[in-house]
Amino acid sequence: MEGARAEPIAPEQRGFAKALVKWQREHGRHDLPWQTHLHPYPVWLSEVMLQQTQVSTVRSYFSKFMARFPSVQDLAQAHEDEVMALWSGLGYYSRGRRLHACAKAIVDQFSGEFPKDVERLKSLPGIGPSTAAAIASICFEQKAAIMDGNVSRVLARYLGYEGDLSLSQHQKKLHQLAQQLLPNKAQDMPTYTQGIMDLGATVCCPKKVRCESCPVQKTCHAYANDQVDTLPLKSKKIKRTQKSIFWFIASNALGHVLGGKRAQTGIWAGMYAFPEYDSEEALRAAVPRGVKIRALNVLRHELTHQSLSIHGFASLYDERLEPRAVKRRASVTKPASDAWPGMEGFQWMSMNDWAQVGRPKPVGDFLNQIDQDFQPL
Length: 377
Ligand code: SF4
Description:
By secondary structure, the protein is α+β, with helices and mostly antiparallel strands. It has two domains: 11-224, Hypothetical protein, domain 2 (Endonuclease III, domain 1); 241-373, Alpha-Beta Complex (Nucleoside Triphosphate Pyrophosphohydrolase). The chain is 42% helix and 11% strand. The protein contains 16 helices and eight strands. Helix 2 (40-50) packs across helix 3 (55-68) and helix 8 (129-140) packs across helix 11. The radius of gyration is 25 Å and the shape is elongated. The protein starts with 15 loop residues before the first helix and ends with a helix. Iron/sulfur cluster is lined by residues 154, 157-158, 203-204, 209, 211, 214, 216-217, 220, 222-223, 228.
């Protein structure tokens, strides 16, 4: 639908911020680990982790990061492999790399202090308009409206905004309206921002909407007009293509597993994984003659634009793969073969080596599968 109803804000809806701030103080979430100190470092860290990831998953990752890197300086000084190892399992790995790049930029360009305004925050790697607004409003009481998926759903319903939110012009228009709803007092900004996030996460949910518990129900357009189930309007749906990939998972007599760093482009860029092939035939053709392999469970993995079926084929401690590497008890020896496509190089990696590098979740799942099977010679 082209038109968007709510412009300007209806007079009765002007009390949105006041009602939300009051509700957040009484009923909002106050026990999230990043709420203890409204310092930009934990707020930023949590905001980046929460992009496309549930609070329940983020909690433990956030605690691990804060324990290992208590400040932005600690994070900036870390090696990328260590950052990515801690990020492993959280998905959307480019976020982890940009997080690290952002920490470095804050140290190099801003002497380790987060800038206070949205424009300079937005200039940093991995900080988009909504994350910038969250940091500026929560930590520095700036009048900046956040606009993530949860918030745009709340506002589209509350204002009766009928524009298609998969189009950027409607996202922009809704953002302009969101700016008009902000509280008058700057000191209410941290509570307001937290409140609108809480409302989207716990009351004005995508499904099972709890309008009966909503602090702004009396002035909500969607509630009054029976549009709660039809707003927000989004016409574009992400189409996922189906793809199969084939991994060769070889372990030596020490239980070390062949792995390498993936290329810096494409999926799981720069992460550690196993040799990968487009087909089972290509995989079998690359494995030295006589080496026995067996199929593991097929893993399904969803990426933003792809639905992957990952076929793992394991070979347990066969000397023909790399006898010298086995004898040297080395965990960093490259195999002589160059028959492993798409990788910068391979090495025998102990389970401890694997734990210290960034690896996609399915790699961890296969490592668990073969670790349980491994019996030392
Ligand atoms: S009344 Fe219902 S639809 Fe309207 S903002 Fe509240 S929870 Fe969302």
